[in-house]
Write a structure and sequence with these properties.
The complex is a heterodimer of chains A (275) and B (167). Chain A has 5 helices and 12 strands. Chain A is an alpha+beta fold. Chain A has 3 domains: 31 residues; 111 residues, Thrombin, subunit H, CATH 2.40.10; 77 residues, Beta Barrel (Thrombin, subunit H). A 6-stranded antiparallel beta barrel of chain A has the order 1-2-5-4-3-12. In chain A, strands 6-7-8-11-10-9 form a 6-stranded antiparallel β-barrel. The longest helix of chain A is centred in the first third of the chain and has 25 residues. With 167 residues, chain B is mainly alpha-helical. The longest helix of chain B has 26 residues. The radius of gyration of chain B is 15 Å and the shape is globular. The chains are: A alpha+beta (275), B mainly alpha (167). At the A-B interface, helix 2, helix 3 and strand 2 of A face helix 1, helix 3, helix 4 and helix 5 of B.
Chain lengths: 275, 167
């Protein structure tokens, strides 16, 4: 017994190191599996308020650029609205089936990273405003990421620039769909996998979200095909997609929630259980 | 004097943590190179101080970085690791005499400082990027990031060291 105690006392530094190091590795590995890690996240009160304070200062630095982005979006939406009005003249709204499936929430980016391999974005909206895990996040230009942690007042978003991200995407013109991943090389290029060889692919094709996943509605812009090649093994394309969203300067984002998301998920889960 | 040292380290801990998350994590030099100055705390922790305390504080500092960066436990792991190997690195760099309170990092010779700081920084960054990337196939990316960020961090640590050394 004495020897065991002696052993512990002699090696207490190593044991302390070992325990803490293993803890760190476990937390890291947990964070690799999809939002299993709920404790170490920037969506907590302290880091949220500090980032909030920081962004209240740094937001002034690129006001001009952000204003231009917003006015460009306004212009686009306005022209779309005008066209929609003129092309479908008199339809009584009571006759249209209520397709109010989506609700949209605005949020400000208070911290953004794009230089690591697993990038996260922190937003200034949280559970109080109705943010829940798995909401899709889009900017005025295209997709940004998926909410992975939520606290009372802040939310943390797993950016598309994260090697853990897998988003279902499709070609706008042909509906062939694949998975969007990131190889951690450039902050404006992501990769589209699993597009079968029979699909017609051309440089400049638009890639949009698929809407199968109950996270993003269908047809949200993602990017355009920059270049592509056929994998040596297997009958799939490997496509580089240039993002519409400039992930390095994203400031205002929208959180999309799909009303039936919970139902869809439950159904999918049931279907899986049956299998 | 002793109280003074505690106060100095507490202030250093907080200032370095804030500086890191508010400013240094957003430098993105050449697109992806960031310095990790918070290692300075572990390097300059009193050389004869309590080793277990240093290991624990390093874990805390690393975990603070991880909460701000949403990075799991990568900073905590890397920090604990260099806190643990610090006595060995000190012995290699300054000889055994460091144990008798005769050596100060800020007043050692340049080659000794360079060996100590660069060695610790590279070990820290290697562990950090290995845990972040977590993929053996990407070993080249790990080494590249370690080298570039390591040089950047080392330069910054030297600047900080000379800025705050009283001569």
């Amino acid at each position: 017994m004495q020897q065991i105690i002696d052993f512990f006392i002699r090696n207490k530094n190593f044991l302390l190191f070992f325990v803490l190091f293993i803890t760190a590795v476990i937390v890291t590995v947990n964070s690799h599996s999809y939002h299993k890690n709920r404790y170490v996240s920037s969506a907590n009160f302290v880091s949220g308020s500090i980032f909030s304070l920081k962004s209240s200062v740094t937001d002034y630095f690129d006001l001009k650029e952000q204003n231009e982005k917003l006015s460009e979006e306004n212009r686009r939406l306005r022209s779309w609205l005008q066209n929609a009005k003129t092309s479908i003249p008199e339809i009584d709204s009571s006759h249209i089936s209520t397709s109010n499936n989506f609700s949209i929430l605005g949020a400000r980016v208070i911290n953004n990273s794009f230089s690591k391999t697993k990038n996260q974005i922190t937003l200034d909206q949280g559970r109080k405003e109705g943010v829940v895990i798995d909401m899709g996040v889009i900017s005025s230009e295209g997709i940004v990421g998926i909410v992975s942690h939520v606290s009372e007042n802040y939310a943390s978003v797993q950016s598309v620039l994260n090697t853990k991200s897998q988003i279902v995407a499709k070609f706008k013109k042909s509906n062939h769909f694949g998975t969007l991943v990131w190889n951690a090389k450039k902050p404006n290029i992501v990769q589209l996998k699993e597009i079968p060889r029979i699909a017609p692919v051309a440089i400049g094709d638009t890639i949009v979200t698929d809407g199968k996943s109950a996270i993003f509605p269908a047809g949200i812009l993602i990017g355009t095909v920059k270049d592509f090649e056929i994998e040596e093994v297997g009958d799939y394309y490997r496509i580089n997609v240039e993002l519409f969203t400039d992930m390095t300067s994203v400031k205002f984002v929208y959180l999309v929630s799909i009303k039936d998301a919970a139902d869809i998920k439950e159904l999918e889960k049931e279907a899986q259980d049956v299998e | 004097m002793w109280n003074n040292e505690i106060l100095q380290n507490v202030v250093r801990f907080i200032v370095l943590a804030l500086l890191q998350v508010l400013l240094l994590d957003h430098i993105n030099f050449l697109g992806y190179i960031n310095p990790y100055l918070y290692v300075y705390f572990i390097l300059l922790f009193p050389l004869t101080g309590n080793k277990a305390l240093l290991i624990f504080l390093s874990f805390l500092l690393g975990l603070t970085m991880d909460t701000f960066n949403d990075s799991g436990g990568i900073h905590a792991g890397a920090s604990v690791f260099i806190a643990w190997v610090r006595p060995v690195m000190l012995k290699f760099s300054f000889g055994v005499s460091y144990e008798y309170n005769t050596v100060k990092v800020s007043s050692a010779s340049f080659s000794q400082q360079l060996f100590y700081i660069l060695g610790m920084v590279l070990l820290h960054h290697m562990m950090l990027f290995a845990l972040e990337i977590f993929n053996v196939e990407q070993i080249l990316l790990i080494l590249k990031s370690t080298l570039f960020s390591g040089v950047f961090s080392t330069i910054l640590i030297f600047c900080t060291l000379y800025l705050f050394s009283r001569k």
